[in-house]
Amino acid sequence: MKKKVIYYRDELHEEFSEAKISPKFIDEKYRYEGGRLRPLGRGLWYHLLAKPIAWMIMKIGFGHRIVNGSILKSARKEGYFLYGNHTNPVPDAFIPTMLNFTGSVYVIVHPANVSMPVLGRVTPSLGALPLPDTKGAFKNFLKTLEHHCDRHKVIMIYPEAHIWPYYTKIRPFVADSFQFPILFHKPVYCLTNTYQKRLFFKRPRMVTYVDGPFYPDESLPRGRQKQELRDRVYETMTKRSTNNTVEYIHYEKINA
Prior knowledge:
alpha/beta; globular; two-stranded parallel ribbon; 1-acyl-sn-glycerol-3-phosphate acyltransferase; 6 helices; Glycerol-3-phosphate (1)-acyltransferase
């Protein structure tokens, strides 16, 4: 069967998710912590429904396997930031939960993830933290991150920002999001999702490699720390991406 080909020009800004959603504007009125019913919704949607659904979809649908995930066990006591490549809309929502099945994960997301007509009301209870659009919203966003960090939760970030389904390399990403673990004094781990041949299935198996911890180099100025931390994570993910054994979708750059 002929392989699907996607043509691109810009690794930093192009998006290839099939979902077309008009994102809401996240200003200071957005309630990151929600109302009094948010803890109840968290318990129902995340712990009782999302976790078993995630397990079934990942294990049965994607043959998911985790390599080196045991390094996260000791880190759960203090909480940490987790970074990963963004290559599949459904698995990327579930993999952080698979890595932290007994704990809680919060995911920094594009506002589109909380803008869907029905599901958009549920995703905040699942841990979605939309990126802010105003200074006032950013202040509330930071307070929410601090709240979760103080309670030793896991914060998941996809620094590539845009979904490229089944992409087998690591796209360049900026260092901005690495300011958060420095600000809140938390360790950094990274995951690298790879695609490997699977017997009797057209869709490849997803294998997730986990690495870390990474800490900022405090001998450097604060502004340089986040870039240096980003570079080490990027290099580690790039090395892990060589474990891909199948290209389900081919990406080809257009040189304009």
